[in-house]
Design a protein that fits this description.
The chain is of the alpha/beta class. It is built from 10 helices and 11 strands. The chain has 2 domains: about 90 residues, Rossmann fold (3-Layer(aba) Sandwich), CATH 3.40.50; about 120 residues, Rossmann fold (3-Layer(aba) Sandwich). Helix content is about 40%, strand content about 15%. The protein is globular and about 50 Å long.
Length: about 280
C-alpha cells in the first residue's frame, strides 16, 4: 500500500508560512495584490479564478479582477495588461489562457512585465527558470510538484527522475527543477521507445502527459515515488490523472492522488509567487 501524498497537508503548511510573510509585508506598508485577467466566461477559468480568490483571501493577499467580454479586441486586452504593468500596488498577474483565436497569444503574454508574471507564462520568466535566476517566476504546476516532494521529505539528490511529458507548461520546467535539486533526469514523450521500461527504471516519476492513464501497468516498481500532474475527465465527468492509480498504488512507495494532489497545491504556489513578487519590490 502506497503512502498517499495529499495536497491538503502541503497547503496547510504553506498557509502558515505565507500568512506570516503577508503580515510582515503589511507591517512594512506593502499589501501583496494579485490581478486576475480573464477574457470571456470559460467555466474552467471561472472555477480556477474562484479557487485562487479563496486561497488569496485565506492568506491575506488582495485580488483585483479584470474581466473582459469574449468578443473584446486585442487592443482592449493590451490596455488592461499595460494598466497592470504600471500599477505599483499590483504585484502579480494571472492571465487566463487560451485566449480567443482572434488574438496573437504569444505576443500578448509577452507584454506582461515578467516581474509580475507569477504563473511563468512569458518567455523571460521561462528564461529565468532555466537560468535559475529571479527573472519572473516558474510555472505554478511544476513548482507545486517540487513543493510536494519537499514537504514530504523526498530529496531528489542522486535519484533517477523520469518526467513524462515535455510541455513548456509542466514537463520541461519540471525537468529543470529536478536537475536543480540534483536529480538525474530523463524526459519521455510521444516518440520515446519503450517508455514503460524507462519509467520503471526511475526512482521518481512525474507524469505530465496530458492523457488519462497513459502511465500504467508495467511503468512501476517497488519504492518509487509517483507525482501525477494530470487533470482529465471521463465520460461521466470524473477527474482522472495521467497515472493509472489502481495499477500504481499497490506497487509504489508513495503517490499523489487525483483529485487532491498537485492541483490542490497549485493555487497556493500562485499566492506564494505574489508574495515573493511583493517582497522583491522592497529589495
Amino acid at each position: 500500500m502506497a503512502e498517499i501524498l495529499k495536497g491538503k497537508e502541503v497547503v496547510a503548511a504553506m498557509k502558515e508560512k505565507l500568512t506570516a510573510d503577508v503580515a510582515e509585508l503589511q507591517a512594512k506598508g506593502v499589501n501583496p495584490t494579485l490581478a486576475i485577467v480573464r477574457v470571456g466566461e470559460r467555466p474552467d477559468d471561472i472555477s480556477y479564478e474562484k479557487g485562487a480568490m479563496t486561497r488569496c483571501k485565506g492568506i491575506g493577499v488582495a485580488v483585483k479582477n479584470f474581466v473582459l467580454p469574449g468578443d473584446c479586441t486585442q487592443d482592449d486586452l493590451l490596455k488592461v495588461i499595460k494598466e497592470v504593468n504600471e500599477a505599483s500596488e499590483i504585484h502579480g498577474c494571472l492571465l487566463f489562457r487560451p485566449l480567443p483565436k482572434t488574438m496573437d497569444e504569444n505576443f500578448i503574454r509577452n507584454q506582461l512585465d515578467p516581474a509580475k508574471d507569477v504563473d511563468g507564462i512569458t518567455d523571460l520568466s521561462m528564461a529565468g527558470t532555466y537560468a535559475c535566476t529571479e527573472l519572473g517566476f516558474p510555472p505554478c504546476t511544476p513548482t507545486a510538484c517540487m513543493e510536494i516532494l519537499e514537504h514530504f521529505g523526498i530529496d531528489l539528490k542522486g535519484k533517477k527522475v523520469c518526467v513524462v511529458g515535455r510541455s513548456l507548461v509542466v514537463g520541461k520546467p519540471a525537468a529543470i527543477m529536478a536537475i536543480q535539486r540534483n536529480g538525474t533526469v530523463t524526459v519521455c514523450h510521444t516518440k520515446t521507445k519503450d517508455m514503460a521500461s524507462v519509467a520503471r527504471d526511475a526512482d521518481v516519476i512525474i507524469a505530465a502527459a496530458g492523457k488519462a492513464g497513459v502511465v500504467g501497468e508495467g511503468f512501476f516498481k517497488e519504492g518509487q515515488i509517483v507525482i501525477d500532474v494530470g487533470i482529465n475527465f471521463d465520460e461521466e465527468g470524473n477527474m482522472k490523472g495521467d497515472v493509472d492509480f489502481a495499477a500504481a498504488e499497490p506497487v509504489v512507495a508513495a503517490i499523489t492522488p487525483v483529485p487532491g494532489g498537485v492541483g490542490t497545491v497549485t493555487t497556493s504556489v500562485l499566492v506564494k509567487h505574489v508574495i515573493q513578487a511583493a517582497q522583491r519590490t522592497l529589495k
